[in-house]
Amino acid sequence: MKGFALTLSCFTFTVLFVTIQGQSLLDKIRTRNMMRQVNMNDDDMSYLDQFGYMSGEGEMSTEKMRTAIENFQRMAHIRVTGRMDFRTRLMMKMPRCGMADMGPDSEMGASQYGVRITKRQTRNGGWRKRDLTWRLENFTPDMAPNIQRDAFRKAFKHWSDVTPLTFRELQIGAPGRSDIRIRFMSSGRSFGRRGGVLAYAFFPENGNTRFDESERWTANNKPRGGIDLEIVATHEIGHLLGLPHSRVRGAVLAPFYGGYERNFALRRDDIQRIQRIYGRNTRPPTPQPTVRPTPRPTPRPTRGPTTGNGNRSQCSNNFRIDGMMEVSNSNYYVFSGSQVYRLTAQGTVARGYPRAITADFPSAPSNIDAATHSDRTGFSYLFKGKKLFKYRGNTLISRTTISDPRFPSSIQGALTWRNGNLFIFNGNQYYQLLEGRDSMRIARGYPAPITRYWRNIPGDLDATIVTDANRFSYFFKGNSFYKFDNRRRNLLPGYPRATGPTWFGC
After folding, report:
1. CATH code of 460's domain
2. Is 108 a member of any domain?
3. Residue 142 is labelled as binding a ligand
4. What is the C-alpha to C-alpha distance for residues 342 and 308, in angstroms, rounded to an integer?
5. For residue 48, which of 69, 23, 26 has the smallest C-alpha distance?
6. Given the residues 205, 230, 236, 326, the one annotated as active site
7. DSSP E strands: which ranges in 37-170?
8. Hey, which end of the chain has fewer CB within 10 Å, N or C?
9. Residue 414 annotated as lining a ligand binding site
10. 169 is catalytic
11. 197 appears as a binding residue in the annotation
12. What domain range is 255 assigned to?
């Protein structure tokens, strides 16, 4: 009997195990089939789940996936299709805040980061006090501490100017616990890659906000191409004060980072929403001392130097740019014929330039087709025909031939976004390149018309470049250039403009 009972128990356990495993396998197959109907992959599902789009009651279904995609597309202000496509995935790769956009997390803010909301915390109902203290607990090595403090002071001032709130800084080591605590972190659940989640915060009265140390933080666009600390801090402080993400295009509390803005300020939507919680600022304005401007001597007009390359002087009407790229130290390399120019962050031609391309890039050819630099990998790429020259700094890493038969015999521009996506241009079309172990190949679905993404940009370009953390793309043709706003996806008014005066000070 004991043997029979043991056999029966084993049989029962086996049947139960197979049933559970079979059910799990069936669920996976069913989920895969649903994902296939909306062209979704695992990364898409993970993103939508992380930022609250897959939250809600009920079992997983194709309709739930489609609704999640549609909600994200509305938040990103792109065409609503209910299916994953190029533009949707492009927006998913944009730098952004780590707070959820929808669902319970967008109101509570902390559950996705494992922080417990206590009864004393008022969530997004606002702070019960009006005079708040803040402390910067550590610093990023990207900037001097005083510059970082100034960026946060400006960020807090944006909110105190329109509300009755006041913010007082506590120094590191000062006694007492501050209401708001700011820290740079190099790891964490929400920080996975450079150019992904930039920072996150918690709703009142938690008081914690975290910034990704791996990002390249900047102030006042110096150096160019980094993430502006004041702009991101202003966004996160909005969360600390109780605001969830905004669906209004261009709002400071919109989830995506839009790049550096010279005259950055809160938008109408941000002001209206914060004043619903705290009311308006009724304090009398602080008088500002009158400062007489110091007279400056009238600058003498300058003209770029003649390069000794005939009509290829950068101030000549016949000057043409073969390729252009911005390297990680915010200097621009401009290639023309057999020479290279280096433009500094101050907008001047560096001393000792132009000079032979091979002086900076050994073994590089003259009259290149295109150039681009990837902040993500640290590599620079020069293209000539189907030849690819790959550099790290000024060291040649490899010289290969692109064997993909779909690769054009010559290209007319290349640019690399912060997420590592590399695009090349030929005629009125563009391609995405995927880098393998030995060479590069064209991604599926290409070529595509340039105007599919960059509307009103002509074909047959000379050079291309993207700057300001993906905010703007520049397209050079002849002696003119076009400036394209990648966030609003439109050509800026007043373009094209002459290349010489803007880029070379001619």
Report:
1. 2.110.10.10
2. no
3. yes
4. 16
5. 69
6. 236
7. 96-97, 131-136, 166-169
8. N
9. yes
10. no
11. no
12. 131-278
